[in-house]
Amino acid sequence: PAFFKMYSDKILALKGLSKTFGTIAANCDVDLDLHRGEILALLGENGAGKTTLMNMLFGHYMPDAGQIEVADANQRFLPLTLGHPQAAIAAGIGMVHQHFTLAENLDAVDNIMLGAEPLNLLPRKRATAEKKIRTIMAQSGLTAPVNVAVGKLTVGERQRVEILKALYRDVKILVLDEPTAVLTPQEADALFENIRAMAQDGLSVIFISHKLREVLAFSHRITVLRHGKNAGEIQTDQADEQKIARMMVGSETLSHTREMQENGPALLRFKRVSVQGRARRDSLKNVDLTVFSGEILGIAGVSGNGQTALAGVISGMLSIESGEVLIEEQPLLDITPAAMISRGVGRIPEDRHRDGIVGSMSVAENMVIEQLDDPTLQRNGLLRRDAIRDYAETLSSEYDVRGPGAQASARLLSGGNIQKLILARVFVRSPKLILANQPTRGLDMGAASEVARRLLEARGRGAGIVLISEDLDEILKLSDRILVVHDGAFSIAKTRDRAQLGLMMAGQAA
Angle 295-301-302 (CA atoms, 0-180°, nearest 5)? Predict the structure, then answer.
């Protein structure tokens, strides 16, 4: 494309950055350059140190060694004060984190103004700030309700508020950590088209992503980290998926194909199920749905359109107002997490931090939390600590859960490794029915490939799988049937055309 190599002078230099957490070397002597007007994709496996590196750039972490230099308007490179976010902001650096950092009781305007305006002037400057925010929304195409408490917004709307918050500060370097995880394909393309336009006006962008399609379509250059170190870089117009895979994991990742097979009997049935939420998109109304043995039912849609209610019922976290839920044609009289687990349901939740783990408990305890009735793990109600530790270490090795060890608090794991912990806990039990809600969000291509393999393997042994994903490529690759959800309504997808499905996700063809 014509936009390749349009960037100019170097604007940022990271030199020899290192960071260690206990015995874990997150980054080791990492160098990275960024040019004015460049869009740089930062790739690597989970635990490769991408987010840690960006957190050092933004001042959240203090490096153990190394320095950061930022060019001023006269192209003079000045050292950045390390370990201070305000210094990074003053230097024109903005960061949008993978996990939201918003005050949920405040509306979007207040969240965007916080830290950018003096506290004593917030009420007086609100009208001016709101006008500027609306201008940015019009220019960027990112829209969100500005006068509604953030806690009431959908996941997708919160993501947009995060990006607007960075753009409000007139940044010259913008760091995006998984920016399109909650966007439709059209919204993701529109976002990057606007980022490309801003880059042509001089904005420099570093974005972390596991979606190689957008990396190859919208970046100028790709830098890869492996085990916390520089593993190489390549101009995007010279890259392809296999070259990137070799740089990331040292080999080409395997592509798993979905073999045709006959469905078995119905495992899960919704009969006119209704759930009353705060809004239509948080609700289900007279939903009929069937999941058969040996199939993957894909639920495609933008986050916040009813998937949470569907997943809540399947996981036992949400009671129904009316209708009937049947597992293996037997009605469920009591919908609770314990009841679902006892009926053979494995649950991969969307919010792995809130619903997937107990952060204060150890990795080992989180591994076994859903099978404490197993006599190999407890005796007479007392936990067998050594057996639990050995079991967790075996699973951690098998599922490549990297971190400070089985006895460490689960909250110390990276997001990707928390996801692997949850996957290990689910798949090891060989459940009959699997709720896979965003199962590869935040996972590198190698780990995502492994998740696909295990889902297809479970399908092959006769499990029924409900795959909820905002990654349309993942839905198309793995699903036997596809339902599209928009604003709480489910539609049968009679096409596998990516553009048409994207329109259905946006409500234009539903």
Answer: 145
Q: Is 83 left (phi over 0), alpha (psi -120 to 50) or beta?
A: left
| pLDDT one-digit tens code per residue, 473-510 | 889 999 999 999 887 788 889 888 887 887 888 777 54
Per-residue model confidence as pLDDT tens digits over 248-279: 876 555 566 777 888 899 999 999 999 887 76
The tens digit of pLDDT for each residue in 102-128 reads: 888 999 999 998 877 776 667 778 889
Nearest to 372, CA basis, from 343, 342, 333: 342
The structure tokens 């919160």 sit at: 158
Rounded to the nearest 10 degrees, how much is the dihedral formed by the CA atoms of 300, 470, 245, 403? -130
Of residues 33, 12, 19, the one with CA closest to residue 61: 19
CA dist 258 and 479 (Å) reads 8
Segments of 238-321 assigned E as strands? 266-275, 284-292, 296-300
Q: Which two tokens stand for residue 412?
A: 């110390």
Position 435, amino acid = L
Assign 3-state DSSP to the chain and report helix, strand, coil percentages, each to 5. Answer: 35, 25, 40
